[in-house]
Specification:
five-stranded mixed sheet; 9 strands; two-stranded antiparallel ribbon; 32 helices; Rossmann fold; mainly alpha
């Protein structure tokens, strides 16, 4: 089952390759692929000094210092290693396509390792294998790891599970704290791979803090956490995009506080032997009070001084009971929305029932450091996943581990019953002995008096125990008598459990397979349906980007909504105005102002920034919404910076009729000209391309301001000569003067 699960983990993620070929998916993966290509071509030093002027025109972006580079370095390392083998030639595209599927195998193994550490004695192997089998194919993990989804999360899940495994491994015995060094190294890779590293350090901090508050402090915990936090944080600061953020961001103050408290507990514990119990309690309370007070004063002073920043909009949205974070840019992203209840059934199937059982079993029975960690991880990740659908990904390993612990115990019990049944069937003497004992059973009693009763109790506990999570002695008295006095009942119950397990496993496997097919649809290529039901492969997006690449000047600037920036830049190799990095709210607001303003007003900005405008123009059956569906978000983002932009009233009703505000906008005219007969010909734009299935339209901007385009080449460089941000043309000075810097609501 272990081998089959690992093979399935890889194969179930290859449907996209089978159906679409070796294609990079979605939007962000195209940037990641382009960055990896730059790293391979130019090396590490130039990579970290890479200022890309072909993005975020006219400002540019210092990619080397604003990227989490772990995945790029991993892919480049694999690519170089494979091509160093004689007679082996592998393309970088193939490495990037298959890497998510390969890393899912490692993530499954680490998940099984966590289950092994947390399971009770006697259940470890079965719990680990079940956890691996669930993690290998569950949609909660599939959602970011299919082949072609070359995104940070595809390797980050492996880093998360690896860090958590080495953390709980370091707490197994008093002498296993050395594994904290490996946990720190794994955490460093996590930091380099994904911005979600803050969850990892906070989760381990929560576990250490809960352990101390619950009276489970030990010197192995002190050693492990001190090593992990000190070395892991020191290494994290070496990642350029992170820098000193562990000491400057509010969301990372918790682990620092726990580290400080851990030292106080260690000092307090070291005095235990030299003081009486009363003196020790007094000393500990005083030391803790003083320590907490000093830490609170220091952190409060740093916050007041501005050296510690506030919680980010995304993190704040995890704690406030609102549907909006106050940042319209964050709210415009679908994966930042709250999670609906049916999502859990969709992504975890039967695990929504078994995982809570395993988590609470860890919390209630035979608590160890590893079991407390699993319970804490499950509860924390469940809460956060309910606030943001994207964070369901963080819950996936916790669900797999908890299910592994629950089902592992059940499997061991069933195996014990099966072994007892086989023993009786193979031993006729045992059958005769049982019959004789039954004949001597007094009314309402147990066979054979006290000695037989003790033997039956011992056999019942042995055959029905699953290592501590559940025992016969913990059942109500009626159920205990039923189990002890009726082996047939136990065998029948075991048979029912096996049948349920087989049926549920089959249904789970089919669900995962169906979800894998759905998740393997790359947004850059999709399957659509004609009105008659026929399936058609839609490659309009790539064909549009190829047209830009082959039919426009190399210095052409393409305006589109920020979603498509990565693909335009990666496939068409043309300059874009914004992309999924979304680092500059005000710049995206300017883009939104261009598209939601009336044609003439928008044109007075567009002609200074772009040569072409690309819009998504249709809602093909089974497709995502086009740009008209995003217009309300564009207006809200623009209005948060430019007061003259009307934020409401951008909609198209159920009959396809636009509101007056929508009809007047540049976006609607670019989108619907030729379809809406009431739209007059555009004065400042010429349509130069429409894709085969009318999903993309490209317009050429007429009378582009040449002087403004030339001004984009003038950049102010720093002393090192590589950091050279651009600036807006002077012609936009009046427009920019009307903006207000975005303030978080």
């Amino acid at each position: 089952l272990l081998v089959a699960s690992l093979v399935a983990a890889y194969r179930i993620r290859l449907y996209a390759v089978r159906d679409y070929g070796r294609v990079i998916h979605e939007f962000d993966p195209w940037f990641n692929f382009r960055a990896t290509q730059y790293l391979v071509d130019n090396g590490r030093e130039k990579f970290f000094k890479w200022f890309d002027h072909s993005v975020w025109y006219p400002l540019g972006r210092p990619v080397g210092t604003t990227i989490y580079p772990g995945m790029q370095f991993t892919a480049a390392g694999i690519y170089n290693a494979l091509n160093a083998i004689p007679d082996v030639t592998v393309s970088l595209n193939d490495v990037c396509v298959f890497m998510p599927a390969a890393f899912s195998v490692l993530a499954s193994l680490f998940t099984g390792g966590i289950a092994w550490e947390a399971a009770s004695e006697g259940n470890k192997a079965s719990s680990a294998v079940v956890a691996i089998a669930v993690m290998a194919i569950q949609p909660g993990h599939l959602m970011r790891s299919v082949a072609g989804a070359f995104d940070n999360e595809s390797v980050a899940v492996t880093a998360i599970t690896g860090t958590f495994y080495w953390w709980v491994r370091s707490l197994r015995t008093q002498k296993s704290w050395q594994f904290a060094f490996i946990a720190a190294a794994s955490y460093f890779y996590m930091v380099a791979a994904w911005g979600g590293y803050t969850f990892v350090v906070n989760m381990i901090g929560v576990h250490a803090g809960v352990s101390m508050l619950a009276g489970r402090f030990s010197f192995k915990l002190w050693r492990s956490y001190s090593i992990f936090y000190a070395l892991g944080t020191a290494a994290a600061t070496r990642v350029p995009v992170v820098g000193m953020m562990p000491f400057q961001s509010m969301e990372q103050m918790g682990p620092l506080f726990v580290f400080f408290m851990c030292q106080l507990y260690a000092v307090s514990e070291s005095r235990r032997k030299t003081l009486s119990d009363r003196e020790y309690e007094t000393f500990r309370k005083r030391l803790t009070s003083v320590g907490v007070g000093v830490a609170a004063v220091i952190i409060g002073a740093l916050i007041q001084s501005g050296k510690i920043g506030p919680l980010s909009a995304r993190v704040r949205g995890l704690f406030v009971p609102h549907t909006r974070t106050g940042n319209p840019l964050v709210d415009s992203v679908a994966e930042h929305q709250a999670t609906q209840g049916d999502v859990y059934v969709k992504y975890f199937h039967f695990n929504v029932l078994t995982a809570p059982c395993g988590a609470f079993a860890c919390l209630l029975f035979r608590r160890t450091d590893a079991r407390v960690f699993v319970a804490s991880y499950f509860l924390v990740s469940w809460y956060f996943s309910s606030k943001m659908v994207r964070l369901v990904l963080l819950l996936a390993p916790a669900v797999a581990v908890s299910t592994g612990i629950a089902l592992g115990a059940v499997i061991e019990w069933v195996a014990a019953e099966a072994a007892t049944f086989a023993e009786i069937r193979l031993d006729p003497d045992a059958v005769r002995a049982n019959a004789a004992a039954a004949a001597k059973t007094p009314p309402g009693g147990t066979p054979g008096g006290r000695a037989a009763r003790r033997a039956m109790d011992k056999r019942g506990r042995k055959s029905s125990s699953n290592g501590g999570a559940f025992r016969i002695t913990e059942l109500p008295s009626v159920a205990k008598r039923k189990f002890r006095e009726s082996p047939a009942f136990r065998k029948a119950l075991a048979g029912v459990v096996v049948a349920l397990f087989a049926l549920t496993s089959r249904a789970f496997s089919k669900t995962c397979d169906r979800m894998a097919l759905q998740m393997s649809e790359p947004s850059i290529m999709v399957r659509g349906h004609y009105p008659n039901g026929d399936v058609v492969m839609l490659d309009d997006f790539r064909e549009s980007y190829w047209w830009l690449r082959d039919n426009t000047p190399e210095d052409a600037r393409v305006m589109s909504w920020w979603d498509y920036g990565y693909q335009i830049n990666g496939v068409a190799n043309r300059t874009t105005l914004a992309d999924g990095n979304t680092w500059n709210h005000e710049h995206i607001a300017l883009l939104g102002k261009c598209l939601t303003s009336p044609e003439e007003e928008g044109y007075q900005i567009v002609r200074h920034l772009a040569d072409y405008v690309l819009v998504w123009t249709t809602r093909f059956a089974g497709m995502h919404g086009d740009d008209l569906a995003k217009a309300p978000h564009m207006a809200r983002i623009a209005g948060s910076v430019y007061p003259d932009v009307r934020q409401e009233g951008f909609y198209v009703d159920e009959r396809g009729n636009p509101s007056d505000t929508m009809r007047e906008s540049l976006l609607y005219r670019l989108h619907s000209y030729g379809r809406d007969t009431e739209i007059e010909p555009l004065e400042h734009y010429e349509e130069v391309y429409q894709s085969k299935h009318s999903m993309v339209r490209i317009w050429k901007v007429l009378d582009v301001d040449v002087e403004s385009k030339g001004a984009g080449a003038h950049r102010a460089c720093d002393g090192g000569g590589w950091y050279c941000p651009g600036g807006y043309p002077d012609a936009l000075r009046e427009t920019l003067a009307s903006k207000r810097d975005f303030q978080q609501i």
